[in-house]
Amino acid sequence: MSAEDTPTSPSGEGLRQSPLQAEHEALGASFTDFGGWWMPVRYSSDLAEHRAVREAAGLFDISHMGEIFVRGAGAAAFLDYALAGRLSAVAVGRAKYTMILAEDGGIIDDLVVYRLADEEFLIIANAGNRRVVADEISARIAGFDATFEDASERFALIALQGPAAAAILASTPGIDAPGLDELRNYAWTDALFRGVPLFVARTGYTGEDGFELLVDAQHAADLWRALLAAGAERGLVPAGLAARDTLRLEAGMPLYGHELARDIFPSQAGLGRVVAADKGDFVGARTLDERPGERLLVGLTMDGRRAGRAGYGVYRGDALVGEITSGALSPTLGHPIALAYVEHDAADAADLTIDVRGTRIPAHPTTLPFYRRKK
Amino acid sequence: MTDLNALLYTPEHEWIRIDDDIATIGITDYAADQLGDVVYVDLPQAGAAVTAGQVMGEIESTKSVSELYAPVDGTVVEVNEAVDADPDTVNASPFEDAWLVKVRLSGAPAGLLDRAAYTALTGAEA
């Protein structure tokens, strides 16, 4: 037996560790290199963790994500210029999914930005891109009445995701989060955990209801344990990157390095709406240029149980018309799903096939997401 | 329970139990743990000839695809249909319920490891 891509490597030497590393080890996690971090890939079983998030709740350590604060009287105007969205229109207390684009419109990273105050924003960047995002922010901020701080070292970020997430958060001893029931999706509130500040946002990356909790790194282990203990009776389990990947794929959410990359434009990824075209000058405005013939991101479903994986070719007859960027057997749906970039005129073709290691398997374009939670 | 010391192993993480001229083949618990949840197993048909060191099938988990190598020369005489129906048996019971194929040996097996040698190998990898 030899794995195509081994899920774990022998050691985490030279990689950064989360403030929760000791918790993960105590829980028996397997680890993997993810964006330069030594992160838990699973604790028990990918499928069990995936199902727990769909049916109850899962707890994820996402401390590898970057936290960058932007502050100042010109912060909103700066972010309107530096990022793809219109951040000045985001109300205090709310959040927005956006991107940072290169001059030519290519995607440098996808981001969630929280408006903390009139003159203060928090940017959450992907682990592997945190430095390049910070560097771009630094380069673009000249001339604006704004400052930025890469505070990634100071914080831990924990995601509590699943239909039971709200009940678990409300019942965790030590957490004082008033107004949790009324907290809307893509909104945040200030809370306390045993007297220390806790930032609670109703956001996530799994397609379920859930929260992302930002806390000072030195309190992260206590918070992690408190949540796991309080949530156990409601089915909460710790969940790793493997479950996170199949959950986000079912939810049709792109992953940087797979669906999003420096040579991909938002419109190709089906994310043209993220770009506020009419907001005036901003970095990446050229993304709006006509790009005839570009490959488009599509969702594909397949019959049977053999999944197409990242890098596998998509064919129409004998012609190679695309490539899978993420693929898995959907644990929730029971059949394979994939995201793929395909030629424009093949994006809704009824006669596509995937080459799964020498066997052509029919693939059916479908609207995203593959899975949508019941409201 | 299977006596793991009575089995033979390959560096590719297959286990082999030899009864007269029949070799029963599966993958080890170490391999199953490394793979994660197994969701699909592609095995050779009964009657197929297999050659030691050559690919005879595939094991697919939620995150990866692995090739399954034949550890011995011979002819497949039986395939475990239960694993085809429930691939997660490979994770749950790699040494017992999830045997994969039985092969009638056409020659003496070579290059297989005993338990101590295999444990030393995986211990070094873990």
Automatic annotation (TrEMBL), chain B:
Supply the alphabetized keyword list. Answer: Lipoyl
Cofactor(s) essential for the protein: (R)-lipoate
Lineage: superkingdom: Bacteria
N6-lipoyllysine-modified residues are 63
- GO CC annotation terms, alphabetical: cytosol; glycine cleavage complex
Transport: is it a keyword of this entry? no
A family per Pfam: GCV_H
Q: Which residues form the Lipoyl-binding domain?
A: 22-104
Give the protein's function: The glycine cleavage system catalyzes the degradation of glycine. The H protein shuttles the methylamine group of glycine from the P protein to the T protein.
> Which protein family is it in?
Belongs to the GcvH family.
Q: What is this protein called?
A: Glycine cleavage system H protein
What species does this protein belong to? Microbacterium oryzae
Lineage, top ranks: Bacteria, Bacillati, Actinomycetota, Actinomycetes, Micrococcales
